Each structure stands twice: as C-alpha cells, then as structure tokens.
Amino acid sequence: MHIVDFVSGSLAGACGVALGYPLETVRVRIQTQKQFTGIWQCAVATFSKEGAHGFFKGMTIPISTISVTSAVVFATYRDCLRRLNQARGADRTAPNRKLDVFLSGLVAGTVQTSVLAPGDIVKVRLQCQTESKRGGPNMPKPKYRGPIHCLLSIIREEGVRGLYRGILPLILRDAPSFAMYFWTYSTCCELLTRSGKKSPDWSAVMLAGGLAGMVGWTVGTPMDVIKSRLQMDGIRGPRKYRGLIHCLTDTVRVEGVGVFYRSLGISVLRAFPVGVAVFATYEVVSGFLRPGPDSIELPWRLK
C-alpha cells in the first residue's frame, strides 16, 4: 500500500465524517427507532430534547476509526488495481478496466470492515441513545457516558466479540456499496473528461464524487437497516433477533419491504456532499503529496 493513498484517504474520511455526521445520526435513528417517522420530525425531536449535541453523539471514535478505514479503503483499492493490471500485463499508462475497478472496490469494502466494525457499533449505540444528560432527576439517564465508556461497556457485557456484532451485514453492505462507489466515480470521471485532456475538471470530480456517494448508499441502505437493528438488539430489553436471516425475514413480515428504504432520502441527501468532500480531499492531498507526473493521478486511473 502506498503511503500517499493511506494519508490522503485518512484525511478524506475525516472530512466526510465531520460534514455528514448530523444527518448520519438522523438516518440511524430513523432506521432503528419507530418513534421517528421522518427526517424533519426526527431532527426536530432530537434538537428539542437533546440540543445540537444530540446530532454529534459518538462522533469522537468514528472520526478517528473512519479516518483509518477510509485510508484502508483507498490504499487497498489502488493496490488491487495495480495487481490486477500486472496480472493481465497491462501497460501502466492504460486506463483501468471497469471490471477491475468494480472488483477492487469490492475487495476494499470487505477489508475495511475489520477496522470499521468496533467504531461503528459504538457510533450506532450512542446515536440511538435518546436520553439526555440535561433531563431532570426523574428522567431516564443515558446508559453510556461517552464513546470510551460505551466501548468498555460492550467489552465488559458482551466480550470482544460484541464489538463485531452485525459484521456480516456490514460486509454485505460495504462490499457491493464500495464496488459501485468506485465504479460510478470512475465511469463519471471518464464521461466528464473533456476531449484531449488526461483528467476531468474539478467540477467534474466533485459531481462524480457526489453521484458515487448517492449510488453507493442506494445499494447499501437495505443491509444497513439490518446491521443497525442487530447492533441495537437487546439494548432496551431481551434480544429479538436470532441472526441476520431472522432479522431480515421478521423485518419484512412486520414492516414490509419499504422499511429498507425508509431512510434512503436522508442517506442520499447526506451522501452527495460527503462524496464530494471525500473525493475532492483525496485528489487535493494525493496531488500535493505525489510528485512528478503522478501528481495529477486520479483514483480510477493508473499513470
């Protein structure tokens, strides 16, 4: 893995988290708690009960872990592209095949879940903790005092294995999601590159990044619902689901197929600006750190 890809991906991930976290909190709450019926209702209820802080619960660990996972994603993605190109004996200046882009994204999405899972479950549990510290003496108190307390509580109550609860749906979400994420970005960049130019303009890069984010989350949203429900299962009472298949079938039976896309609107709303921020940051940082002719290199093409 090239250090430039790792550093660029890390900074890009941090920017994406900081920009999209408030909407991420609303999205997770809509997916896991029936008391929230829509984006606006959830946002208003969160603000009135918990204040602005309610939208940023659990952000400390994700902004650090997602920085690492984003670095792993970009570095793994580019490493896979290099290896696939070498395997078919392609010239280094040749554009990548779309199948190679798709497969590299698939591998990158799978690999990063091992790093992402512990921070993700902490994030989800803190985001779904609607009790406020500002409540009166007769009001229920939050179970977790913060990210570190939540992390240690999960280990104490469920063991280290508890940090990886929901990892199977996480893999099933991220593998195809990242495959489509990079494939969409690659395709859009190629289509938006003007004739005679080696790379697209910055406006095209940002548009491609935004569209890639929207497509990726459209693919990943159904399994994200299952993941979040498994991660929250048993927190407020006895466990309801025996596993992924039971959660999937029970959710469809009780709430219908439409529940998997109940949060799609906010997922897409959040995904576009986050996708813009992630790819624009990656391109700026990698272009600055990579000297010589490779300084204009884009993630979807090897020079």
TrEMBL record:
It comes from the Eukaryota. InterPro entries: MCP_dom_sf (IPR023395), MCP_transmembrane (IPR018108), Mitochondrial_Carrier (IPR050567). Solcar repeats lie at residues 1-83, 96-191, 200-288. It is found in: Mitochondrion inner membrane. It is a multi-pass membrane protein. One of its GO terms (cellular component) is mitochondrial inner membrane. One of its GO terms (molecular function) is transmembrane transporter activity. Keywords: Membrane, Mitochondrion, Mitochondrion inner membrane, Repeat, Transmembrane, Transmembrane helix, Transport. It holds the Pfam family Mito_carr. Belongs to the mitochondrial carrier (TC 2.A.29) family. This is Solute carrier family 25 member 47.
